[in-house]
Amino acid sequence: MNTPNKLTLLRAAMIPALLAVLYAGFPGSRYAAMAIFILASLTDYADGYIARRRGLVTDFGKFMDPLADKALVIAAMLWFVETGAMPAWAALIVIAREFAVTSLRLLAAASGRVIAAALLGKAKTACTMLCLTVMFIGLPAWANMACAAVITAATVLSGIELFVKNRDVMRDINGGK
Question: Which domains are delineated in the chain?
């Protein structure tokens, strides 16, 4: 197994560790969780960088990398919802967008087309991971709400961009209408 795929699996394995630390609730657990989250987020950057630079892009990586990213972000967001640091509607918008984008990619793949991540999608991922990292510090309610608003706005804008750029996929499955 190549290095990027190992990093993706490491990121996926860090999700239960993140949740275990958060729910353990020991003194400093938020900071330990933040460290795990940062490390997991950095593996996302590293595996993408290594895969592109060394030409190690694999079908496994194309599938597992976004899945690990989504699971990491959703796990953190749901914990923030549970603790009252993030409104549920913000998490729901992110989750709904991920389902919609994944569905669009599956429809495109069925016709032999690959929809790559767009610039706004990459910016959304970076923005989301940065905002969630900041939220681990234990901010006042207004700052958490600002982070949730930034995450939501980036999520909606990147989703719109992806669907507009790939509207032909939807048109093709509707018989050209």
Answer: 3-173 (1.20.120.1760)
